[in-house]
Amino acid sequence: MAKPIEDVREISRIAYGFMASKALFAALHLDVFSRLDARPQTAAELAADAGVAEARMQTLLSALAGLGLIVARDERWINAPASARYLVTGSRAGFSEYYRAQIDEQVYPLLTHLMNGLRGDDEHLAGVLHRDQMADAKEAEQFSRAQHAGSLGPAHVLARRVDLSNATRLLDVAGGSGAFTITLCARFPELRATILDFPNVITVARRYVAEAGLSDRVEFLSGNALDLDWPSADVVLMSYLLSAVPGADIGTLLARAHDALSPGGRFLVHDFMLDDDRQGPDLAALWFLQYLALSTDTVSFSQAEITDQLHEIGLAEIVGEPLIPSVTRLVSAVRPDH
């Protein structure tokens, strides 16, 4: 639960938060952090490199400095430590592609439809646009590429948290670009996997899997998870799926996971989850909120609520823990041998 705010300046920070977001996104589009990673630069040098007028670049740099993203030193600008680690294009821990291509270009615009979702206006949602994106090969590739960049970090955390050394078959439902499958297969050499997702997303996943040298261990199933027959597996993974579907479909997906699991198999749910008192965490709650711009039927849920549903379908040994602090949790459950 967040501390109740007491100062109007804290309200202003929330109200003006979108301005900070756009400053960050603009810097990413101009590759400011990568340019500063190469060498400290003056505003004039950055302006020349980026093809932006010097006065405009100075205005952007002041905003970035005010946000703590860059620092002035000896009349030149350098990256703040977090910017150097996470915002440089191509860096191993980088999120620049994810923030630029998905959060700015896809998630940010859809939030203009949020009030329509809250009012139940199904005729004016971003959901239609989103479905069009997934039906369009170019848009689906952009979404999946950006999601891949954002999912690799959580995938590595998950791979360290769960022991799949005795597993041989993974079913990654709505597996997207394959970030989780690739990471888990790399860590557990006996594991073979099937990625299930929409056709245009599968096209992208095939490429990432091939680049990882895992084409001989990963299969693909193209279509809607609610319509297809699922192969049996001793591990079923759902990452960021339940939060994105209508609430009425959650029980169906959980039941299908149960039926696909071999006796003794493990079900892994990684998703945004609220605290049990539903008063946070803030980022998880905000992610749930943005889904209402896509569909009036999505619902928010806590770890306790997911746990209750897993008990109802007959799963046992249910445990949960934070994966991305304040954002996502990982819930693990087992189908009993009997």
Short summary:
The chain has 15 helices and nine strands. With 338 residues, it is an alpha/beta fold.
Task: Provide key terms for this protein.
single chain, 338 residues, alpha/beta, Arc Repressor Mutant, subunit A, Rossmann fold, 2 domains, seven-stranded mixed beta sheet, two-stranded antiparallel sheet, 49% helix
CATH-level-2 architecture of the largest domain: 3-Layer(aba) Sandwich
Shape: globular
The sequence of SSEs as H and E is HHHHHEEHHHHHEHEHEEHEHHEE
**Spatial order of strands in the largest sheet:** 5-4-3-6-7-9-8
Enumerate the spans where pLDDT stays under 50 for 5 or more consecutive residues: none
Query: Based on DSSP secondary structure assignment, what is the total number of beta strands?
Result: 9
Q: Which whole number gives the mean pLDDT?
A: 94
Explain what the structure shows.
The protein is α/β, with parallel strands linked by helices. It folds into 2 domains: 8-88, Arc Repressor Mutant, subunit A (Orthogonal Bundle); 101-334, 3-Layer(aba) Sandwich (Rossmann fold). Helices cover 49% and strands 17% of the residues. The protein contains 15 helices and 9 strands. It has helices at 8-15, 17-29, 32-38, 43-50, 54-66, 81-86, 96-110, 114-118, 127-135, 137-161, 179-187, 199-211, 247-260, 282-291, 303-312; strands at residues 70-73, 76-79, 169-173, 192-197, 218-222, 233-239, 261-272, 316-322, 328-334. The strands form 2 sheets. A 7-stranded mixed beta sheet has the order 5-4-3-6-7-9-8, sandwiched between helices. A two-stranded antiparallel sheet has the order 1-2. Helix 9 crosses helix 10 (137-161) and helix 10 (137-161) runs parallel beside helix 11.
